Amino acid sequence: MAQIRVTMEVGNDGVAVITISNPPVNALAIPIIAGLKEKFDEATRRSDVKAIVLTGKGGRFSGGFDINVFQKVHETGDLSIMPDVSVDLVVNAMEDCKKPIVAAVEGLALGGGLELAMGCHARIAAPRAQLGLPELSLGVIPGFGGTQRLPRLLGLSKAIEMMLSSKPIMSEEGNKLGLIDAIVPSEELLKVSRRWALDIADRRKPWLRSLHRTDKIGSLSEAREVLRIARQQAKKTAPNLPQHQACLDVIEEGIVHGGYNGVLKEAKVFKDLVLSDTAKGLVHVFLAQRTTSKVPNVTDVGLKPRQTKKVAVIGGGLMGSGIATALLVSNIYVVLKEVNSEFLLKGIKTIEANIRGLASRGKLTKDKAEKALSMLKGVLDYSEFKDVDMVIEAVIENVPLKQKIFSEIEKVCPPHCILASNTSTIDLNLIGEKIKSQDRVIGAHFFSPAHVMPLLEIVRTQKTSPQVILDLMTVGKIIKKVPVVVGNCTGFAVNRTFFPYTQSSHLLVSLGVDVFRIDRVISNFGLPIGPFQLQDLAGYGVALAVSKEYETAFAGRTFNSPLVELLVKKGRNGKNNGKGYYIYEKGSKPKPDPSVLPIIEEFRQLTKTMPGGKPISVTDKEILEMVLFPVVNEACRVLDEGVVVRPSDLDIASVLGMSFPSYRGGIVFWADTVGVDHVYKSLKKWSEMYGGGFFKPSKFLEERAIKGIPLSAAATSSPSSRSKL
Ligand SMILES: C[C@H](O)CC(=O)SCCNC(=O)CCNC(=O)[C@H](O)C(C)(C)COP(=O)(O)OP(=O)(O)OC[C@H]1O[C@@H](n2cnc3c(N)ncnc32)[C@H](O)[C@@H]1OP(=O)(O)O
């Protein structure tokens, strides 16, 4: 608590330096806000203070309002704990202060942090400080006057772009656009800011109140046109997100009725949005994502991560080359091993294409791309493995082959080397069965394309050592993935949880529901594509192989659908040959293919699941729930078996691995939002009506529904006897 404070020091020059201290990002926690109010009042009162500088301790101005307070509001529904910052502090105590205030910004000024800076009379920044209003990414809008001051400082179009995209700009750009008054080296930041504040006090520099400015807004009709276009775009890009339209409404209020009225409307709309399901989901995802880095008995036992400088990747296929790409662009040396020069060359070419692709999309500078490529070495034998810190095996899913590779690498790699497999389904105990160092065996499950998708499932067995887990978590973070540690089972956390997704969709089609309607319902819900388009994209070979795997592992909970086999028989192969459920033509969006309908009819004749031979009648909501509740049901088994450390880890895994909409908080959080009892009763009803083992409620779900306990609540009795962790 001692670290959470606001301090004030008054120098001989008559400048009071007010410093926010709340490591690591100087979040504006409630005591900080109270402290700021107190210090600004004191500085205003004191006769020895001529001017004020506001800054943050430890090289960071402020990461914004304390997001934990949002969580508290969500838990209690009590909005009264939110202090009035917008008028009381930013307008009255700061902007209308009788003494000039200069913000000295270093590191970052985000959300409420930037809003405080905009309430000051000038802003001086260190180079490369991040400036942004990312509130919309948390389901709210800026609430300390940002919707009003940013357009007045930057112009309407740029301000709207920054708020709606939630993306920060650098202080250099801020300086060009007028948000920042000067950029100075870090060491001089305070000195220059003090002088600047005194210059304002002595009228050598202008005393500007952002909220009173109108010079950058343009005429009313111009502003309305910019807002109209932004509204249209937001309707397309963020159809399920109320905060986007709300933000534009609030900006408009300020333009039409003046900045102060805008501030008042902003405060009201902000409070409404804080309690929305969208804000609850997004705040949950923000905090849950950070919690994944806390793994009991791994990150809390004083272990230090070891350095990983060089990694060997075995297999240069799609996954192997994607993994190699991710490592290379993060400055890790890669040895890529293949079985012959033809495959090796292909792997290297794919990596080169990946890296050049990142560079052409502006994600990597040309120099960095060249450097990454120079860190790659292709090999056909193990001679380069003697000094690698980690091996990631990414060959085809074949148990004897993987076992052979693990026996070989155990012999040729140094004793500290981590032995990882990128398998997506095979039991890791089986892979490591034949070797002695089972404590070094671990799963590094990347999602395709591995250099793009953010999730890294780290699969531990009962024998994997905590040091090895910690090291892989650290590498995961270095290569900018979100590592989630999970237990060992078929499909691990993500594929296991989502296996019923395709099963239930196929059952629905067999019951007479239109394929394209199901895809539409799912993408309207917020997943990027529906289950059938996903199947087209992943390829039917994968669908067939995976369904066999699931039939064995999840016997009794699968629907033995002959649909994909029928499609293959009729010469369809999904996106691969341009013919799936959809037609794929270069340069145009996939179009539903009507010629697939007779095949679907044939499928229905084969399965004979339609009650009385007639298609069932269902609403869109029922379709959504019939597809996703079986996923929730499997998630319950995953929680019950202790495959994840905590329920929120499964939320993050579903958001980052399956692109489950983050604004719905992830699969477990969403289930709690719709109600455990409703999920349970619906599944029970469908299991009685249609069979389908995946509908039958799991014991865990049943217990939670009967006792009225949310799925996200920690286990009441420890699952340790079954825990996979
Ligand atoms: C009324 C106002 O308009 C409303 C607001 O201001 S809403 C808040 C707006 N601000 C934001 O959205 C910024 C959120 N934070 C971030 O994007 C990133 O944390 C960051 C860019 C500041 C730093 O990133 P990085 O260095 O990678 O560290 P990261 O792991 O994310 O955060 C470090 C710690 O600070 C915490 N933190 C970061 N921002 C926080 C915030 N605004 N409130 C509370 N905690 C915060 C994180 O939870 C994490 O906690 P942990 O150590 O216990 O896990």
TrEMBL record:
CDD domains: crotonase-like (cd06558). The chain crosses the membrane at residues 311-336. Keywords: Fatty acid metabolism, Isomerase, Lipid metabolism, Lyase, Membrane, Multifunctional enzyme, NAD, Oxidoreductase, Peroxisome, Transmembrane, Transmembrane helix. It comes from the Eukaryota. GO terms for cellular component: peroxisome. GO terms for biological process: fatty acid beta-oxidation. It catalyses: a (3S)-3-hydroxyacyl-CoA = a (2E)-enoyl-CoA + H2O; a (3E)-enoyl-CoA = a 4-saturated (2E)-enoyl-CoA; a (3Z)-enoyl-CoA = a 4-saturated (2E)-enoyl-CoA; a 4-saturated-(3S)-3-hydroxyacyl-CoA = a (3E)-enoyl-CoA + H2O. It is found in: Peroxisome. Pfam families: 3HCDH, 3HCDH_N, ECH_1. The keyword NAD applies. Residues 310-488 form the 3-hydroxyacyl-CoA dehydrogenase NAD binding domain. Pathway: Lipid metabolism; fatty acid beta-oxidation. Residues 491-584, 626-705 form the 3-hydroxyacyl-CoA dehydrogenase C-terminal domain. Monomer. This is Crotonase superfamily.
